[in-house]
Amino acid sequence: MYNLVIRGHDLSNISTPEHLAQQTKSVGIHNLQFALGASFPQLDSSSNALNPGMGTYFKNLFAKHDIQIALLSCYSNLIHPDPIKREEILHKFETYLRDAHFFGASMVASETGSVLPNLGYSEDNFSDTVFADLVKVIERLVKTGERHRTLVGIEAGLNHPLSSIERTKQLLEAVDSDYLGIILDPTNLITIETHESIVDIVEEAFQQYGSKICAFHLKDFMIKDGKIVPTSLGKGLINYPAILKIIQQYKPYCYIVLEQTKDEDIRVAKELIAKL
């Protein structure tokens, strides 16, 4: 009933693509959110290196183990302030969109970034000017996604220009395309003051733009030293039974990524969900 996904880099000490496939299967998961550079930093995953043969290799290898790449990650600072660096980043994303189908992936995923090169916090991220700049960037990427029939999956976060349900809705109104999807991570939208409202945030997001939600990040959290700190599912405060019920109501079989749930904790999380 739940279409669970793990990030490949949430499995530790992975040495080869074959090893990643084996370990994914061993924890009982059949879908990956695959970040080439995070899982295999020694492999060149730049726009110059990406190619159909690489995609087909990973697709066929994972298929032998009954695993598919659900999301292809290309998390980058899409609004990098240096125009030369930004162009490199956007070109790489467009290359991933071009070749995603060779990997067997239906979408390429990223957050929006920051006006600071190091992705740090800045009040400027929340300005209308920066948001308008973001809209132009997403329009460009979505046009590429339309050409290659690959979804652009965008994730919101408190410190980014796409910082709320309201801003996300504005983006969707500004960029009207079947190839723009939203990856909903409610833990990215809470503070220590609002964390108890996380179920309400999920409900509101589905009511406001549920048809555009293409994947969900289920990321448990603790509060430590006045901060939201991610943890494995079932070890924190997130009301995952209520959230999973909402997902099932609005988006049956939606990809649910167990983000930050690692190694043997993946098997535990899967068992907790199976009991619901």
From TrEMBL:
Domain of life: Bacteria
Pfam family, one: AP_endonuc_2
Domain Xylose isomerase-like TIM barrel: 56-265
Name of the protein in its database record: Xylose isomerase-like TIM barrel domain-containing protein
